[in-house]
Write a structure and sequence with these properties.
This protein has 106 residues and is mainly alpha-helical. The protein is built from five helices and two strands. The termini are far apart.
Length: 106
């Protein structure tokens, strides 16, 4: 799941406060109200929440997929990336274009 990778990335970078935006209501509710779930999904949610203990503050929010296109685009590139360093280089080189594409033409 992209959330797990994003949280891992933030832990590795020593982030103190984290805002996690998800476009899946199922994931959002599972993060806010974790239940005993022995499935793979439940294991991933527990892993995310354990990793969140590394931050002094974590906020979870749900956003519509249409309002989350920058994160969705970055997640797609991250899934195709071979390494974090490649992904960081990609972000630095392309973030302005990705964000610009999220704004409607005026």
């Amino acid at each position: 799941m992209a959330v797990r990778e994003g949280v891992r990335f933030a832990v590795e970078r020593g982030v103190g406060r984290l805002v996690v935006e998800v476009d899946s209501q199922i994931v959002y509710h599972a993060l806010l109200q974790p239940k005993e779930d022995l499935s793979y999904f439940g294991r991933v949610i527990r892993e995310i929440l354990r990793s969140c203990d590394s931050f002094y503050r974590v906020d979870f929010s749900w956003v519509r997929r249409t309002g989350n296109s920058v994160a969705h685009t970055l997640a797609q590139y991250a899934l195709r990336s071979l390494s974090h360093s490649f992904f960081i280089t990609f972000i630095l080189d392309n973030i302005v274009d990705i964000v610009d594409a999220d704004f409607p033409a005026i």
